[in-house]
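Notes taken during the Thursday session

The instructor put the following on the board and asked us to keep it in front of us for the whole hour. The protein is Probable transcriptional regulatory protein IDH41_12170. We were told not to look anything up and to reason only from what is written here. First, the residues (239 in total):
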Amino acid sequence: MGRKWNNIKEKKASKDANTSRIYAKFGVEIYVAAKKGEPDPESNRALKVVLERAKTYNVPKAIIDRALDKAKGSADEVYEELRYEGFGPNGSMIIVDALTNNVNRTAPAVRSAFNKSGGNMGVSGSVAYMFDATAVIGVTGKTADEAIDILLEADVDVKDVLEEDESVMVYAEPDQFHAVQEAFKQAGVTEFTVAELTMLAQNYVTLPEDSVAQFEKLIDALEDLEDVQQVYHNVEFEE
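Then, after some discussion, the predicted structure tokens were revealed:
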């Protein structure tokens, strides 16, 4: 499970490193989370999750503050959370999560991205059953054994703890996200390399070499859409 996460994360990070697109998407996500409750992460758990993830992407404080100020003000934009499912080349599976203030814009755009890049949309439930909602927390400066001891002492249940590259990755149920982070914070960890609520595939596939470029084109097309927040898939890239 874990090696695939770092593989996916690295692909996304390298793509997003040279664009401000991700900051704009975080701005929307922070605003929506803040409007669900109080614009205070200490009392709004959904907002706290988004802000913790924003830190790992180095989202500028100005972007975060602007979104929070907008939520505190008189702005009342209505966004819907939508999920689309589909298939890429060689039966690869894709989940697309969107936040939109115009459903009539988003659905056709997602469908067009699939169609133009060799994929096709599926019906609701056609793909999601092959993925598990998972909290992923990454830390440095600890071994896997040390991380396990920290979590056991805090009585936090997790799915797995693995050493990957230079990080220790903890996989847990989504409702354990804050408990995992708090356990590490109590142990002196102040920064996290990963802090995600994500969808991890139950099984990963490696595409034939002649399909990789087409698949990457499809993922890029989906991620480039204004309303798309997250794209999950079951493809493991060759390292």
